[in-house]
Amino acid sequence: GAGVSQSPSNKVTEKGKDVELRCDPISGHTALYWYRQSLGQGLEFLIYFQGNSAPDKSGLPSDRFSAERTGGSVSTLTIQRTQQEDSAVYLCASSLYGTNTEAFFGQGTRLTVV
Amino acid sequence: SQQGEEDPQALSIQEGENATMNCSYKTSINNLQWYRQNSGRGLVHLILIRSNEREKHSGRLRVTLDTSKKSSSLLITASRAADTASYFCATVFSGGYQKVTFGTGTKLQVIP
Q1: pLDDT tens profile B65-105
Q2: What gap in Å lies between CA A27 and CA B48, rounded to an integer?
Q3: What residue numbers bound the domain in which A28 lies?
Q4: A76 in contact with B at a CB cutoff of 8 Å?
Q5: Which helix (H) or strand (E) holds B29?
Q6: Shortest CA distance to B78 belongs to which of B6, B10, B8, B14?
Q7: How far is residue A57's CA from residue A47's CA, in Å, rounded to a whole number?
Q8: 3-class DSSP state of A90
Q9: Residue B1 has pLDDT above 50, yes or no
Q10: Could you tell me if residue A113 is inside a domain?
Q11: Sheet architecture: strand order including B19-24
Q12: d(CA B52, CA B5)
């Protein structure tokens, strides 16, 4: 596609429910990132996929968070047993492989846990 | 933890003035990038400066990099109301995973 696509744009869920957030990166981009941004805050790194390498999961805040990237393309971020503090905008970005490449961002999914 | 720290956290200027934002980081980098974010959603890449570069220009943007001080600055000249946004610096480490790590951001308000 033309850019990074994220779905849904907005998600309201009840505390304790599981949610899945989807990211479609730009075709050909081998690197994919998930970030979380709470209201008025900076970007918190969650997870990074690069090609077939093992993902860097060092930013996942708890074992309720997990992410997959199937076939080196689409990625799904899953949050189990959601809590109110999970409410945030979840941003996905992709980039070409290489050290001097820019990241292209999707418009994010605004998650609200009530 | 965040790699970059921006300063100031917030900046308010009059249209036509210049805006300067600073970024400090902690470890050796391959490059440093600046991004802009409007309305709390997707970020847009502005400029990338490599570790062996000291200054770079793009339109009204000027970025400097001082690797000895582990710091960078973004200058926006002749600011416009449309420049109102949050600005983030991001770094790519010189070793290990080539992931992009973001700072805390500067909120810029340009008053017409």
Answers
A1: 999 999 999 999 999 999 999 999 998 876 655 678 888 89
A2: 22
A3: 5-98
A4: no
A5: strand B29-37
A6: B14
A7: 5
A8: strand
A9: no
A10: no
A11: B5-7, B19-24, B71-76, B61-66, B55-58
A12: 21
Domain B5-111 CATH (choose: 3.30.1490.10, 3.90.190.10, 2.60.40.10, 3.30.420.40): 2.60.40.10
CATH assignment at residue A69: 2.60.40.10
- Of the candidates A42, A56, A104, which has its C-beta nearest B102's C-beta? A42
* Domain-embedded: residue A72: yes
> Would you call A99 and B102 a contact, using CB atoms and an 8 Å cutoff?
no
- In order along its 114 residues, chain A shows pLDDT tens digits of 579 999 999 999 999 999 999 999 999 999 999 999 998 788 999 999 988 888 999 999 999 999 999 887 999 999 999 999 999 999 999 998 777 788 999 999 999 999
Residues of B in contact with A50 (CB under 8 A): 97-99
The number of domains in chain A is 1
